[in-house]
Amino acid sequence: MFKPKHPIPVTQPFLPPLPEVTTFMQEIWDRKWLTNSGAFHKELEAHLARYLDVPYVALCANGTLALVIALQVLRVTGEVITTPFSFVATSHALWWNNIRPVFVDIEPEFCNLDPEKVESAITPKTTGILPVHVYGHPCKVDRLQEIADIYGLHLIYDAAHAFGVRMAGRSLADFGDLSVLSFHATKAFNTFEGGAIICHDARTYQRINYLKNFGFAGETTVVAPGINAKMNEFQAGMGLLQLQYMDEILAKRKAIAHRYMALLSGIDGISLLTPDPGVDYNHAYFPIFVDAAAFGRTRDDLYAHLKSYNYLCRRYFYPLISSFNMYKSLPGAEPSNLPTATRVAEEVLCLPIFPDLRLEHVDNIVDILSS
Ligand SMILES: *Cc1c(COP(=O)(O)O)cnc(C)c1O
């Protein structure tokens, strides 16, 4: 065991070589076109549609605004069923649309919204379901679509963790009425800040474009009360560069994840998510689940122990969204209604994983964890 001189964070962005960045910046400087559907913006939408194998990609300034707009585009109102086990932006996007989040428990296998608990939470005010592919592990998409179809609900996926994930050969971002991606610095694919909405028809794509640009349809024509959620040319250029390195980024993440899996599989009291052989993962996160009784340490002890060795893990997702002050009094937000999410939030610890993390650190983290 050793203690690195500098703290090792849970994640670190992949950055392309700086000379390549200055080359694309020169193009921006030459064009003097910084935002509003510039050349890089158009190019990145086209490249991502091909890379993700989806019909339309509408780029946005960040993932949270993309979620807010996705809900606006479909005019979702009233109540939406969602998961408490996510990053807080999932529910905040509902709040910003004056929609009440209705929290439904997760299933223990992959920590995603449990479809079997969705139906009993539907009321006459329910207009949509907002699940999250947590850690890039696919939700039970067929069952969720079936429920949405039966009840006439919109189905919008928060796919912020799911960039590039494929299930039985199909892009996970292609599911639902809409899927929302985040390209934040901490995500598997980053544009510093950024995000996108994946949609399936030209009319919806057009409507997203209105809504992300104040509703402008021409120089003097405003057709909708839009907001400003445009991605700028610097972000789009970073995306284009990053995309060229995606195979390398994913291969490095995979090697780290597989090393963790091999080393951690036999440890009493530590459990991992079981990968589905039909899924190509992006390995954006490496969560472990600590059973304090069997492991002999609580999750928080382990977190502090690793921190004392300069490994900064994160408890994604603790606390649950439903426990924050602005949500905790909502019907259904009480822990007794969310037993699995409540337990998992107490057990989960995300270990460092990022393309430049050396495998000797993975070995060291497991040694420290077992000591
Ligand atoms: C990162 C994240 C978001 C927010 O995306 P930003 O681009 O940071 O605004 C939303 N939902 C989930 C699940 C996330 O992890």
TrEMBL record:
GO terms for molecular function: pyridoxal phosphate binding; transaminase activity. This is DegT/DnrJ/EryC1/StrS family aminotransferase. The modification N6-(pyridoxal phosphate)lysine is found at K187. The lineage of its organism: Bacteria, Pseudomonadati, Thermodesulfobacteriota, Desulfobacteria, Desulfobacterales. Belongs to the DegT/DnrJ/EryC1 family. PANTHER family: PROTEIN RV3402C (PTHR30244:SF9), TRANSAMINASE (PTHR30244). InterPro entries: DegT/StrS_aminotransferase, PyrdxlP-dep_Trfase, PyrdxlP-dep_Trfase_major, PyrdxlP-dep_Trfase_small. Pfam families: DegT_DnrJ_EryC1 (PF01041). One of its GO terms (biological process) is polysaccharide biosynthetic process. Keywords: Aminotransferase, Pyridoxal phosphate, Transferase. It comes from the Bacteria. The active site is at K187 (proton acceptor). The keyword DNA damage does not apply.
